[in-house]
């Protein structure tokens, strides 16, 4: 039988490594074996239901880290006049798309249209349904879409924005960026016990416009950040020879490919260390970095703090 680690299962199922470990400890994943302190999970295992997720308790705890409940409550005041809500978000500096519980897009703000090069909102509003869109599922995972449309509040961090998808769907004439990396926030608007709207808000981490080869490489690095850096594979993703790729990447990005990878990995470590559900060792493991001298020293060199000190100060 083929097995996967807790980290691999977490990535496959779109949950935290700690959650996978808890499910394994509770014997909710059939066929799981324990090897030392690590769990070996059947590669074909299906993610079991977690009562904490169904009740929303787990998500609420996570949401408190990312978006205050007061933000969701503040938006309730717009329910008496949804048009006022749309006018408000038109002036909002962050890209926003609003969905009804059935997944239908009912609003795009100007910042969203500018990010993806959409010139006519009517091409999307009232026509696009996120529940039935395979590209959205590929981007965020089915779990994010389902939770968003069930009224949960949480975040996905540092994912690649679908800059090509809007052009392919015919709602944008050309890409504004060759690559963009975003945090995706789900903010529900409730009217008492009735879930009315899912507000999808994007925070832009980084954008890139320039050589298509470098955009492909940057995307590849972000998508494989939890793996060890492989220069040959990264160059292949950019469709360049190893030597040509290294030279072009340095010219365009002002940093060597591995250093770019290292910087992004440190950023991910900083983010995971702020999760109180994870120990320091688990935060490193969630980033695909063993808690050893290599990454520990890299973290201390970049932040001038130990991981424990960074956690305490933040």
| Beta-strand content bin | 15-25%
Distance between the termini: 43 Å
Spans with pLDDT under 50 lasting ≥5 residues? Answer: 50-68
Give the overall shape.
globular
The percentage helix is 40-55%
**Structural classification:** alpha+beta
CATH T-level fold name of the largest domain: Beta-Lactamase
* CATH class annotation of the largest domain: Alpha Beta
Strand order of the largest sheet: 5-4-8-7-6
Count up the domains.
3
Number of helices: 17
- Extended strand count: 8
- N-to-C SSE series? EHHEEHHHHEEHHHEHEEHHHHHHH
CATH superfamily of the largest domain: PAS domain
> What is the makeup of the main sheet?
5 strands, antiparallel
Mean pLDDT: 83
Radius of gyration, whole Å: 21 Å
**Annotated CATH architecture of the largest domain:** 2-Layer Sandwich
